[in-house]
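Task: encode each sequence below as structure tokens.

Item 1
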Amino acid sequence: MKKINQFLEQIPALLASKISIFIYLFLFFYLVVFAVLTMWLPSLKNVQPSANVQLILGNYTNVLSALGASLAAGSGTLIHHSLSTLHKKHDTMHEEMQKTIAELHAKIDRLDQSSQGKD
């Protein structure tokens, strides 16, 4: 299970790598821009991507988009959970600090009273 978690933690970094971005740009260019150009320019008909290639690479692009969306949603949930935990810790520490300050004030008041009583 630990290896699976390590692998899953590396996926966002892999998807944001230069190689992945190059692949995404290539797929966009090949599936959209180049395909449109081959429709408009008859001389490029011979190098037009076939329907099978468009289907396979289009599915690849859709899978990556779904994976990216799920990663974004998952990281958003993780960040929200981390912030909630951080807020709870902050509130607990703030309450402890308030109690400590109140105790400190009480001690200072006792010291003031005892020093005034000696004078």
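Item 2
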Amino acid sequence: MPLSEHEQRLLEQIERALVDDDPKFASSVRTGDRRLKARRKLQIGALLVVVGFAVLVGGAVAESVPLGVLGFLIAFGGAVLGVLHYRGATGAVEPTTGPAGDRGGASAARGRSGRGSRQPMRNRLEERFRRRYDQ
């Protein structure tokens, strides 16, 4: 749903104030979508894994140990790159863990009541949405 003219003016004023107040932060925020960058790195990682396996197989066919090791290192580097950027690319959320001494008691209770604990946040967001568009 597009913003109204009033909301667009307010947003532009906030952006101008941000640029005037802290230009370095504004430029870092404006650089682009982080999820898009993470997806690109995930794709590069997958490509590196494929290329690495191809070089590894080529090294095995050519009976060249250094070429096989190089292929393994390329594939491993691609896998590491993919794993490091997977969460940012997909928006996946890691489960939160409790303190080191907590072995399932409180965290299991949190797991069972997860839906109930998120409900107030959802209600607040829905209320804000209604207030914004009722005006």
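Check on item 2: Residues 1-92 form one domain. Residues 98-114 have pLDDT under 50 and may be disordered.
End of task.
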